[in-house]
């Protein structure tokens, strides 16, 4: 597909039922995978993935996240004279095209808006309705497969998923950066950091108590002892990654950075395994029951978009890894290693392996898979 065309290739495939997971609208497969040929399974995963993001309601969720949308708008307009006005921009995973239209409003000479899902059809219609057809060219296709007619000055993308890295859209953005960004060009955002901290998530405690009460109460209702399932229910709950807001007062330690990505330099290989050794000291006497993760990104000029529990809520929320409940006091040391790797069976999912000790206690190993179920909880 040539980047200069306005024609969109429309698939006849019906979209799959929408899950509650966070979107990314581009292919997360590395250039090496594209060269060697994707497996049929990987193709099916991507087809289902892209189809799921044709749902307009999902894009509404993102746009009505004003922290997210206003940060991009402000970053674009704050730097419009130096970076956007009269420049060529590519928007990777454009969705409805709102970021592309922000760039057009800021005076971009040309914007190439790329999205692999059918939402690109609506993006083209919106571009026309807003009078930007002479500036914005919408391209429906995978980032690794599109051909642009020229190099670009700026790469704009809202690529972040839950826990920043979930759904693996960033490799597609890096592919566009390496192939199409001019020397000295700009990345929006240009830096990303993932953090972790100790947590006492109150809703975990409430769930445990409610689960025990339910299974034990059946003995009184039906004269049957079902309490054996209580431990199983709690254990299963604690094996799942949860995307959930954590209250500021439920953060039990100062945060530590898990990774700090310079988006002008980071490579796809750097993302295959992110490992961080941590030492976290608890604040006060609390019940430690979770590890909480969140991320920040920065744009040129220094503007920051944060998903921290200490800031206004975003649709990314926080990522919570349930731990074996332990009592901690002031300056109790929790130390260990966290490894975040791409899942081999589904390149859009993540494996999160956690090894940790509380003070001088024995090492505890927790292994989580971050998949489509990570946000399917309403606690």
TrEMBL record:
It comes from Halocaridina rubra (Hawaiian red shrimp). Gene3D superfamilies: Hnrnp arginine n-methyltransferase1, Vaccinia Virus protein VP39. Keywords: Methyltransferase, S-adenosyl-L-methionine, Transferase. It comes from the Eukaryota. The lineage of its organism: Eukaryota, Metazoa, Ecdysozoa, Arthropoda, Crustacea. Residues 89-185 form the Methyltransferase domain. Residues 1-37 are annotated as: Disordered. Residues 191-359 form the Protein arginine N-methyltransferase domain. GO terms for biological process: methylation. Signal peptide: none annotated. This is Protein arginine N-methyltransferase 6. It holds the Pfam family Methyltransf_25. The gene is PRMT6. InterPro entries: Arg_MeTrfase, Methyltransf_25, PRMT_dom, SAM-dependent_MTases_sf. Coiled coil: none annotated. GO terms for molecular function: histone methyltransferase activity; protein-arginine N-methyltransferase activity.
């Amino acid at each position: 597909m040539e980047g200069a065309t306005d024609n969109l290739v429309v698939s006849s495939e019906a979209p799959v039922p929408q899950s509650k997971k966070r979107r990314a609208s581009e292919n997360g497969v590395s250039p090496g995978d594209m060269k060697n040929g994707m497996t049929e399974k990987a193709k099916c995963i991507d087809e289902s993935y892209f189809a799921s993001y044709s749902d307009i309601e999902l894009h509404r969720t993102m746009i009505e996240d004003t922290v997210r949308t206003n940060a991009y708008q402000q970053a674009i307009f704050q730097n419009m004279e130096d970076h956007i006005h009269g420049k060529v921009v590519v928007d990777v995973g454009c969705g409805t095209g709102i970021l592309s239209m922000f760039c057009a409003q800021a005076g971009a000479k040309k914007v190439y808006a790329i999205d692999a899902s059918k939402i690109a059809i609506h993006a083209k219609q919106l571009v026309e309705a807003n009078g930007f057809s002479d500036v914005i060219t919408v391209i429906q296709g995978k980032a690794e497969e599109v051909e642009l007619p020229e190099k670009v000055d700026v790469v704009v993308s809202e690529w972040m998923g839950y826990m920043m890295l979930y759904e693996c859209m960033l490799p597609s953005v890096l592919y566009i950066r390496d192939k199409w960004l001019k020397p000295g060009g700009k990345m929006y955002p240009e830096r990303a950091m993932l953090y972790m901290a100790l947590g006492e998530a109150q809703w975990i405690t409430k769930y445990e108590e409610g689960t025990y009460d339910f299974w034990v109460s059946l003995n009184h209702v039906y004269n049957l002892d079902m309490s054996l399932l209580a431990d199983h229910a709690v254990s299963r709950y604690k094996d799942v990654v949860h995307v959930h807001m954590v209250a500021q007062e439920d953060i039990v330690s100062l945060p530590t950075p898990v990774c700090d990505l310079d988006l002008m330099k980071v490579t796809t290989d750097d993302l295959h395994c992110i490992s961080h050794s941590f030492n976290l000291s608890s604040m006060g006497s609390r019940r430690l029951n979770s590890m909480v993760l969140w991320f920040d990104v920065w744009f040129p000029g220094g503007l920051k978009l944060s998903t921290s529990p200490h800031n206004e809520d975003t649709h990314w929320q926080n990522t919570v890894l349930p731990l074996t409940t332990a009592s901690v006091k002031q300056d109790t040391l929790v130390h260990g290693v966290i490894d975040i790797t791409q899942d081999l069976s589904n390149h859009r999912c993540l494996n999160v392996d956690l090894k940790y000790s509380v003070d001088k206690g024995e090492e505890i190993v927790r292994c989580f898979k971050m998949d489509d179920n990570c946000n399917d909880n309403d606690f």
